[in-house]
């Protein structure tokens, strides 16, 4: 029986990896296939084991893919509805004049990250040539969908303008593709490190330099992150995590954005010289310092150690590069 289960596990993993392309649920599908076999072992022809395993895993994967797409679509729908309502963009729009949007209108045609149809809609909307009801009729788009498309376009523009400035580090803006991509990556990264299975990240790590020190990241959960722009389409992601001893640690990842907008890791992990825990009474309001706020204080998230403007006698060092790199 052990040999049979081992054979099923090997076949199931190959099939699942093929269908899910390294998805974080690959191992879940393998285990589900083993459970189905065990429950029906008396009814299964062992001479036809390969075909049986392939068929079962195939259906499990297709069901999972379909469910995952539905859940993702629903999650994005809920998030966009929540954000659009929270921002009350229609109310804000009605209070502003065309002059308030002049900079957007001047640059709109040059924004390659917005499609031509949305550019036309946004231009008519910001110029107040047509309201939502008129635009909905003209483009045969539901009013609720139109509102979300306008909202997403404005968020993408806001994000682009932020990156065009000399920002030190930032968080992604909800409603943008960058936010969705980073969120999905962090979810996969967390599972990969907890399960000690980097194959989960194979689509992200194809061109990556992976240092052996990754084995020293004893991760329990990711609790915060910041992003720094290095150069065009090249970023540094600084991650704060809680280890299995409930201590807070930090490591960095250098990544690029490919033409298809996917994240491609260049180097992982990168450890800062040191990380210092600073009490809120000293850290509050100091620019570039906030990364994670908790009862324990605020962490400096910059790779390379503590901000030179901050008194080095304040707080205590909770992580040193020597903890990971010999």
Describe, in short, the structure shown.
With 326 residues, the protein is an alpha+beta fold.
How would you describe what is shown here?
The chain has about 325 residues and is of the alpha+beta class. The protein contains 10 helices and 9 strands. About 45% of the residues lie in helices and about 20% in strands. The longest helix has about 40 residues, at about 50-85. Mean pLDDT is about 75; it is low at about 80-85 and about 285-310. The two termini are about 45 Å apart. The chain has helices at about 1-20, 25-40, 50-85, 90-95, 100-105, 115-125, 130-140, 145-165, 175-195, 280-285; strands at about 210, 220-230, 235-245, 250-255, 265-270, 275-280, 295, 295-300, 315-320. Helix 1 packs antiparallel against helix 2, helix 1 (about 1-20) crosses helix 3 and helix 2 crosses helix 3 (about 50-85). It has a 5-stranded mixed β-sheet with strand order 1-5-4-3-2, covered by helices on one side.
């Amino acid at each position: 029986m052990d040999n049979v289960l081992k054979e099923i596990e090997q076949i199931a993993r190959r099939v699942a990896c093929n269908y899910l392309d390294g998805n974080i649920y690959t191992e879940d599908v393998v285990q589900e296939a083993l459970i189905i076999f065990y429950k029906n072992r008396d009814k299964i022809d062992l001479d036809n084991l390969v075909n049986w395993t392939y068929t079962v895993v195939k259906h499990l994967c297709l069901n999972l893919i379909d469910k995952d797409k539905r859940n993702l679509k629903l999650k994005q729908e809920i998030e966009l509805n929540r954000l659009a309502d929270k921002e009350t963009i229609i109310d804000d729009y009605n209070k502003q004049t065309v002059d308030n949007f002049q900079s957007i209108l001047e640059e709109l045609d040059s924004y390659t990250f917005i499609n031509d149809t949305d550019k036309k809609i946004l231009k008519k909307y910001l110029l107040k040539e047509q309201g939502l009801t008129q635009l909905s009729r003209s483009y045969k788009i539901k009013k609720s969908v139109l509102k979300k498309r306008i909202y997403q376009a404005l968020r993408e523009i806001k994000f682009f303008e932020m990156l065009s400035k000399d920002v030190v580090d930032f968080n992604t803006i909800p409603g943008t593709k960058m936010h969705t991509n980073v969120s999905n990556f962090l979810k996969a990264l967390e599972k990969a490190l907890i399960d000690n299975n980097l194959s989960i990240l194979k689509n992200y790590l194809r061109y990556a330099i992976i240092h052996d020190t990754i084995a020293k990241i004893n991760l329990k959960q990711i609790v915060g992150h910041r992003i720094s722009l290095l150069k065009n389409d090249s970023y540094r992601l600084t991650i704060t995590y809680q280890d299995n001893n409930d201590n807070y640690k930090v490591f960095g990842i250098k990544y690029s954005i490919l033409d298809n907008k996917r994240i491609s890791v260049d180097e992982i992990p990168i450890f800062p010289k040191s990380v210092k825990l600073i009490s809120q009474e000293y850290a509050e309001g100091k620019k570039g310092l906030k990364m994670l706020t908790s009862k324990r204080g605020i962490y400096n998230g910059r790779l390379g150690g503590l901000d030179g403007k901050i008194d080095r006698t304040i707080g205590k060092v909770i992580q040193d590069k020597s903890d990971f790199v010999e």
